[in-house]
Structure formats: structure tokens, C-alpha cells
Amino acid sequence: MKSAVIRLGAFACLLGFTIAAQAQSSVSYTNIDLTYVGADIDVGPGINDIDADGVKLAGSLNVHQYIHVLGSYERLSPDDIVIANGSNPPTIIPTDDLDTYRIGFGFHTPQFGRAERQYRSGLIDRYSLFFDAQYLGIDSGSTGGSDPNGFSVDAGFRAVNSTRLETLLSVGYEKFERTDGELTVEGRIFYRVFEKLQIQAGLDWNDNTSRWFIGLRYNFPKVTIFR
Q: Where are the domains of the chain?
């Protein structure tokens, strides 16, 4: 997965260049995302990684001062799998769309930071920590009912450091039935173009799949359903 490491390194460099810019005043846990996704999938030993692309819809809702619920739906369209047969023509295995859905809940801290009058566009002006737990499901188009379910846990850090820029970094653990668990790493940058609308770009990586994505996030006014 050399390409995943290269992409993660490139993202870290981008984060380093942008973290000193001006950024937004608060972190929102009530939002909706729509992103275009590109992926590099490791399908097994002796087979080249395959490319896939698609879309992802995700959202989060703040239901308590420190609790949010979240979910997402992603559809990827992978390239066909090509297996080399030496001097013989390669074997081509068609693939179906890969649907992944997640639903869960999370905890987040209050936003720590200096008072508004003390802002100087520092490295971090305001930040929040979070912990998420989600149920995972996959639909690969298989007719044998063999698609696995699983779970994931993630812990991360969200920071705003200017009137327009927000950053997110997280690490986690993901486990599906009949497979070994995997470490996951994610990084994202958000840039506010209007009061509630951000553009975003980022990467996430685990042992078998690396993704890059670009898209939009809309932040809703602060909502707390239960106090």
C-alpha cells in the first residue's frame, strides 16, 4: 500500500502548510457532508490493487451538550479484478458496486480555547476532542448472504485556527466478521466559503483500503435536543 503512505504523507504536508492560516470560530457537531471518493483497494496476495470511485453521504446530529449521533452511506464502483496468467490471457473478474453504511453515536468535549477578545489567529484557537462508536454494514452485491457486518471506534481532535479553516485528525480500530481488526487513520481539512458552508478534502487509510475525498459540508445552527 505504498500509494496510501504517499497520499497520507502528502496530506500531512498540506496540513502543515495550511495550519497557520486564518480559521473559523467554532466546531459544529450538527452537519451533513457530500463527498466524491476515490479509493485504492487491496484485494489479496498476488493481485494488483484495484481502483474505485464513488460518492459518500454522511451526517451528524448533536443531541446533547456532549453527545452526537452520526451515520453515513458510501457507494464505490471498483474496477474489474485482473489476474495475470503468465503468457496466457489474464483472468478478468467483474466486480459489483460496494455499498458501506455506518450508524452510531459519539461523545465530544466542550470547546476549549481562548476568549474571543484574545484571538490572534494562533496555531490552535479553539478545539474539541471526540470519541465515536459505529456499527458497520457492507453490501457487495453477493447473492450468498456472505457480506460481513462489523464495528468501528475512533478518537480524534478537531480544531479551528482562523476565521475560515478547520482541521480534523483521528485514529481508530475497525473490525468485520471473519477478518482481523485494522488500525485506521483519517485527516481532513475544511475551508469555510460561506457562513455555514465548507469545502473539504482529506484522506483515510487502513491495511486494505486507502481513500481520498473532496466535497462539501453544511453546518446547521447549534442544536441540543436533550439537555
A: 2-219
- Which string of DSSP letters, residue by residue, matches 45-75? TTS--EEEEEEEEEEEEEEETTEEEEEEEEE
2-219: CATH, from 1.10.1790, 2.40.128, 1.10.10, 3.10.50: 2.40.128
Quick one: cell of 54? 464513488
pLDDT of residue 100: 92
Query: What are 62's three cell numbers?
Result: 448533536
How many Cβ atoms are within 10 Å of 171's Cβ, its own excluded? 13
Give pLDDT, residue 181: 87
Which has the closest alpha carbon to 171: 216, 147, 217, 206? 206
CA distances, 136 to each of 22, 42, 100, 175, 210 (Å) = 36, 19, 7, 9, 17
Task: Please give the Cα distance from 122 to 41 (Å, whole number).
Answer: 38
- Looking only at the bridges linking them, the beta strands covering 98-108 and 67-78 are antiparallel
Specify the amino acid at residue 127.
Y
Q: Name the helix (H) or strand (E) containing 107.
A: strand 98-108
- DSSP reduced 3-state for 165: strand
pTM: 0.78
